[in-house]
Amino acid sequence: MNxxxxxxxxxxxxxxxxxxxxxxxxxxxxxxxxxDLNATDRLDWNTVGVEYTLLPNPFTxxxxxxxxxxxxxxxxxxxxxxVNEGSGWVGNFSPGEPLLxxxxxxxxxxxxxxxPLQAIGLDLQPATLSPFVATAEAxxxxxxxxxxxxxxxxxxSSSFLGLRSDSGEISSLVISLTLPDGGYDAFAFNGPAIAxxxxxxxxxxxxxxxxMAALTRVLxxxxxxxx
Length: 227
Known about the structure:
Blueprint: H1 4-21, E1 28-31, E2 41-42, E3 54-55, E4 59-62, E5 69-73, E6 80-84, E7 98-101, E8 109-126, E9 132-139, E10 145-153, E11 159-165, E12 170-178, E13 187-190, E14 193-196, H2 200-218
Antiparallel strand pairs: 1-11, 2-14, 3-6, 4-5, 5-8, 6-7, 7-13, 8-11, 8-12, 8-13, 8-14, 9-10, 9-12
């Protein structure tokens, strides 16, 4: 009896199971520190202009070293300015750190990525250096919400807003800031740290390679006839 058709069906089943094993839930979890992101890339605001550069809305940058495209946007009429901690911005970031700030606008500010991410995080601070609540909502490639996370910050330091997707499907992120009394304030933020994931095509090739390797091991038996 030739077992080849059965073996092929078995290998196809394994391929489906392996592909399904990489599909996670869309749950978000907070990341409390930049060092916990296991970042593969970062967006350096020095690459978009020198200090006091007024940037268009929207504008596009690239991360290093992975060259992930990032488009930053806000509602019409809003501008972004490149500043440095200690000169254009006097707050609680690291001295000389390159920042963006939003003038008199408190959000939302939208980040869109040209490939899905697993995690992202940045530090931010309001212009009045007062207590605040920062909110981030992540969206998948189909524009569906993956969830919303919020942090409370103090006037004494910038605060880190980070999140991770169990499914690695973050295609865009929307951040905003409010004050405890419900008011709004402009804010500054540093370059996001990003944890990228393999593109879907890479993952599919990986699962296919495993299935083909399993098929290769059992193919020599396919031509044997049962007694």
